[in-house]
Design goal:
Blueprint lengths: L6 E5 L6 H14 L8 E5 L5 H10 L5 E4 L16 H6 L4 E4 L2 H6 L4 H14 L2 E6 L3 H5 L3 H12 L12 E4 L13 H19 L1 H6 L1 E5 L7 H5 L6 E4 L6 H10 L1
Parallel strand pairs: 1-2, 1-8, 2-3, 3-4, 4-5, 5-6, 6-7, 7-8
Helix pairs in contact: 1-2, 1-11, 7-8
The protein binds 1,3-dihydroxyacetonephosphate.
Length: about 260
């Protein structure tokens, strides 16, 4: 187990209307109210739910931070449909997922786009949760480590940070997302350790030692403990199981 404080983040993806999101956030706040979580907790709802979930954080004193699932790098202007860093900050967002494989695959986001998003978020003081991960054919060809290392290097090109807590990485092998097929803790450790070595090259060894690297892909209450025992796995980015408050709270309590 690492000395870094664990972080459990829930990615709601395109689920929960505004009112459903408020209810889910309240259920989670209740489920976590019996004891203060030892891990950091982040909830990433769709954009339109952010304000409502922020209300729950503020008024119910809920023990989780607010994250978005995407951002655009320009500060303002004629970019129909996009959301800026300042807009996210104006509703209390402190984390933002970037580079998720669903955005890379379905919306053709490139490493260069992700690099711009990463720089814009850091400049705005929002913590990027930078996602990486290989498809099944890449793993079958045993190219997964090189593939992920290249993604991280590209996303962090020209990036420097002063504090390790300014950045979070999430390793999410695509073949394990929403499939029920999890990577083994050893699979996750192999890639997360390589990510940390890459961070040392990109950001310096001291910073790399403190950056949290999460695992994501069919993580659930029954399997999270095995991942968290690994030296270079510092938490989880949770999809499906984050939509059930009791499951997500159980994962937080195991962290
Ligand atoms: P699942 O936990 O549903 O596999 O999703 C993982 C994920 O993509 C989180 O970002």
């Amino acid at each position: 187990m690492s000395s870094r404080k664990h972080l459990i983040a829930g990615n709601w993806k395109m689920n929960e209307t505004y009112s459903e999101g408020v209810v889910l956030a309240q259920e989670l706040a209740n489920a976590l109210s019996s004891q203060k979580p030892e891990a950091d907790v982040v909830v990433c709802p769709p954009f339109v739910d952010l304000k409502g979930v922020q209300g729950v954080v503020e008024f119910d004193n809920a023990p989780f931070a607010l994250g978005a699932q995407n951002v655009y790098w320009e500060p303002s202007g004629a970019f129909t449909g996009e959301i800026s860093c300042d807009m996210l900050k104006s509703v209390g967002t402190t984390y933002c997922i970037i580079g998720h494989s669903e955005r890379r695959d379905y919306f053709h986001e490139t490493d260069a786009d992700i690099n711009k998003k990463c720089k814009a978020l850091l400049a705005a003081g929002i913590i990027p949760i930078l996602c990486c991960g290989e498809a099944e054919d890449v793993r079958d060809a045993k190219q997964h480590v090189e593939f992920v290392v290249a993604q991280i290097k590209a996303a962090l090109e020209g990036v420097s940070i002063k504090d390790a807590n300014e950045l979070v990485i999430a390793y999410e092998p695509i073949w394990a997302i929403g499939t029920g097929k999890t990577a083994t803790p050893e699979d996750a450790e192999e890639v997360c350790a390589a990510i940390r070595e890459t961070l040392a090259t990109c950001l310096g060894a001291d910073i790399a030692e403190g950056v949290r690297v999460l695992y994501g892909g069919s993580a659930k209450p029954g399997n999270i403990a095995g991942f968290l025992e690994k030296e270079n796995v510092d938490g989880a980015l949770v999809g499906g199981a984050s939509l059930v408050a009791s499951d997500f709270a159980e994962m937080v309590n195991r962290a």
